[in-house]
Structure formats: C-alpha cells, structure tokens
User: Which sequence fits this backbone?
C-alpha cells in the first residue's frame, strides 16, 4: 500500500511540474501543414552601411559568394501561448547559397493544427560560411571559412514575431532569411568569426 501511495504521489507531482513548465511541444499531428525554408540572403541587392553625406559607403562590395552550412530547430507559438516544433525533435541540416541567388531550401515540414501562430523561434546549433571568393569588409579582406561564435553554449536563438494564419487542409510557409551579407560584413577578417549578436540580429523570418 505504501508503494502504491508513493507511486501515485510521484505521478501527480510529475503532472504538476509538467503543467507549470514552459516546455516546447512537438508537432506531427494536425489538419494543416507548416513548412519552414531558409535562404542565404533575400534582399537581392548589396547591403552597404549608410554613410554621412559626402562620404563613401562603409563597404564597397557586400555580396557574399559561397555557401552557409547550418543546423537548426524551428518552433512556432500558438495564440494560446504553446510552442510547437516543426523539426521533429531534432536539429535539421541545410546548406544554402550565401548570396541567395540559388533560392531557398526546405528545412522542415510538419502537420500542425489550423489556427494563428504569433511567434517563431529558430535555434541554430551551428552556422558556418564558406566563401568561394573574397569579400571586402571593414576589418580587411575576408575569404575562406567563417564561423558564428556561439559563445560556448553551442547555439544561437533567434525569436521573431509573425502573423501566420494556417487554414485546415492548407500549407503555410515560413522563410528564414539568414541575411548573410549583413553578418558577414561584421566578421573579423583576422579570426574568421562573427559574433552571436551580429548573426542573431541580422536573421529575419517571414510568414506567408
């Protein structure tokens, strides 16, 4: 009897803790579909930093040629506040053209419940750029491999507000724009690294 009471108490305690936690849910069931794609850069033009009148732009050439290799998990938040994962409980791998000229690649696709989703969270577990040419930036000439510095924790989290209205039987799309030109232009030509802050602030996510 004592063992039964202890077991019931443990189950009840676990249920209470689960209800109070902000754990992220996992998708896979629902009457609609949400697809997340990524693109290296969706601006289509150079991203020189604005300069004062009469001064030259800070960066003369900003278009990065090469690839960006990364792993990431993607979550969306419902209007009720719950989080649903689109990446099947594991980081997904993708390689995109840094310039964006090759278009977007699909990172994840999952069934979700129809409804409105208000935020997206992308947890990057690694981001590595490989430049096929040289990029003139403020710290010098950048070429070869460039890594995003995750500051020891191994990940970079990007969270953005979205307005995704997902209808039953339909597919909603998320586009993760890495905005590569922006953060590569903030890299160190000496250490070949980019700060976590520079990368995270550059990434954009839109819903359609």
Assistant:
């Amino acid at each position: 009897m004592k063992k039964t009471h202890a077991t019931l108490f443990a189950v009840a305690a676990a249920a209470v803790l689960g209800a109070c936690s902000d754990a992220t849910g996992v998708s896979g069931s629902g009457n609609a579909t949400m697809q997340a794609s990524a693109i290296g850069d969706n601006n289509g033009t150079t991203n020189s930093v604005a300069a004062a009148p009469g001064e030259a732009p800070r960066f003369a050439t900003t278009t990065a040629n090469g690839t960006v290799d990364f792993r990431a998990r993607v979550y969306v938040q419902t209007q009720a506040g719950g989080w649903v994962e689109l990446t099947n409980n594991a980081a997904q791998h993708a390689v995109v053209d840094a310039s964006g000229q090759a278009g977007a690649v699909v990172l994840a696709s999952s069934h979700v419940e129809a409804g409105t989703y208000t935020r997206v969270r992308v947890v990057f577990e690694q981001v590595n750029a490989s430049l096929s040419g040289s990029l003139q930036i403020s710290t010098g000439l950048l070429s070869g491999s460039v890594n995003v510095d995750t500051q020891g924790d191994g990940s970079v989290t990007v969270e953005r507000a979205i307005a995704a209205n997902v209808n039953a039987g339909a597919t909603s799309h998320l586009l993760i724009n890495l905005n590569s030109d922006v953060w590569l232009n903030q890299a160190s030509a000496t250490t070949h690294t980019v700060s976590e802050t520079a990368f995270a602030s550059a990434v954009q996510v839109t819903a359609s």
